[in-house]
Backbone:
């Protein structure tokens, strides 16, 4: 016994699922049999498919006006209203803790004094005066390695890799809140390292940038070292 | 000689042209953040316009998106492209604003758009374009159509955004497409 052919109304009820590919095989076959004989429904399917394709191809709409001034004011202001409070300013500092958290991370590392060791010692390159006469060179205070020195970078890299491996092995036995804090600090330090590297690449002769990168890398090493020696949670 | 970095460093320092700007902005560099704004503002604005049907509100929401992005950027881990992260943040800002406006009983711009399109006199050959038709959709259908067909989100993702089921998203999408077809054929 053969079933009655599908009507347009029945096909329309199935079209949503048909276009999503959600119909079981038998129902899909029935719809396609109907489409093969119904130009109206075939045109409808073609229109809906073209509509989806046209929507996907819509270009971005250019913004009406430059919004940067308003954004800049809000991110620079000490209070920022968001979270549905637009129009009513609630005191809420916008914190950008890149360097002070990195310093806090260094302080954390300092708790494990005695673990640090000097990787290499070197001097900061002598900066020149405006007239071109060099000033006296001075030894680096706590220089761990010169980041523009290939060997120094390799040492940092190996140390970071090894310490990361230790932290990863110990992750399950450490307090989750501490691990989260460590990861956030590492992200901030990584951002500072990336920024310093980029700046140094643009100005490779800058002793200030050289020292800043060295400090950031050293902080990362110290933080990872401190994390590697944290006691397991009880 | 390149430094032997660990995998997490390598992931962050990908060769995306704007990886440095993202890292710099995350560290507080406003000029880098402005460059990110200029690169991404049109796409964010487009999302806001199309989801709300209201260009004026979209400008305000676009600012909200970038302010929120500035606040959250330090938490961006680079597990997705920055544009993907920013885009999802924009969707959430728009949807949160809608909920807040709903609690206040505020008028949804989409209702105005529907009324405006319905009231517009139709001259022969006067065809609405797709953007106008999208703006004329009922708000719920418009949001799902924009998220799925324009922005490319899957139904499961839309369901997460909107707190509905994937099946509900599919049904609303089909309804939206039928309404759009009807509007475009008038």
Residues:
């Amino acid at each position: 016994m053969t079933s009655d052919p599908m009507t347009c109304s029945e096909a329309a009820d199935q079209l949503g699922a048909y276009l999503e590919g959600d119909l079981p095989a038998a129902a899909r076959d029935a719809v396609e049999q109907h489409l093969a004989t119904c130009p109206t429904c075939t045109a409808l399917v073609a229109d809906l498919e073209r509509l989806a394709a046209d929507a996907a191809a819509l270009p971005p709409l250019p913004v009406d006006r430059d919004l940067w001034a308003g954004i800049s004011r809000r991110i620079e202001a000490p209070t920022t209203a968001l979270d549905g409070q637009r129009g009513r300013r609630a005191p809420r500092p916008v914190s950008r803790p890149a360097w002070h958290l990195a310093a806090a991370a260094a302080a954390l590392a300092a708790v494990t004094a005695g673990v640090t060791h000097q990787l290499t010692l070197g001097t900061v390159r002598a900066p020149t005066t405006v007239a071109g006469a060099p000033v006296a060179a001075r030894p680096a205070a706590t220089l761990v390695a010169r980041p523009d020195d290939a060997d120094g970078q390799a040492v940092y890299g190996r140390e970071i890799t090894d310490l990361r491996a230790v932290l990863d092995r110990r992750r399950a036995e450490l307090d989750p809140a501490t691990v989260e804090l460590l990861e956030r600090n590492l992200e901030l330090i990584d951002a500072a390292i990336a920024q310093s590297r980029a700046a140094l690449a643009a100005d490779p002769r800058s002793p200030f940038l050289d020292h800043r990168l060295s400090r950031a890398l050293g902080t990362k090493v110290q933080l990872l070292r401190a994390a590697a020696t944290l006691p397991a949670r009880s | 000689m390149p430094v032997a970095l660990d995998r997490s460093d390598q992931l962050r320092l990908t060769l995306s042209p704007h990886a440095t700007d993202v890292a710099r902005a995350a560290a507080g560099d406003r000029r880098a953040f402005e460059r990110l704004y200029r690169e991404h503002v049109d796409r964010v604005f487009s999302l806001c316009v199309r989801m709300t049907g209201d260009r004026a509100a979209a400008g305000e929401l676009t600012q909200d998106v970038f302010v929120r992005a500035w606040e959250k950027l330090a938490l961006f881990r680079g597990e997705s492209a920055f544009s993907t992260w920013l885009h999802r943040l924009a969707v959430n800002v728009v949807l949160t604003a809608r909920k807040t406006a709903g609690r206040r009983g505020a008028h949804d711009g989409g209702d105005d758009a529907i009324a405006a399109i319905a009231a517009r006199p139709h001259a022969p050959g006067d065809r609405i374009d797709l953007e106008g038709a999208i703006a004329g959709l009922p708000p719920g259908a418009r949001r799902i159509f924009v998220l799925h067909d324009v922005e490319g989100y899957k139904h499961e993702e839309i369901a997460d955004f909107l707190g509905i089921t994937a099946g509900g998203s599919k049904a609303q999408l089909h309804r939206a497409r039928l309404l759009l077809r009807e509007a475009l054929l008038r």
Remarks:
- Chain B touches chain A through 65 residues (CB under 8 Å).
- The CA atoms of residues 25 and 33 of chain B lie 5 Å apart.
- The mean pLDDT of chain B is 83.
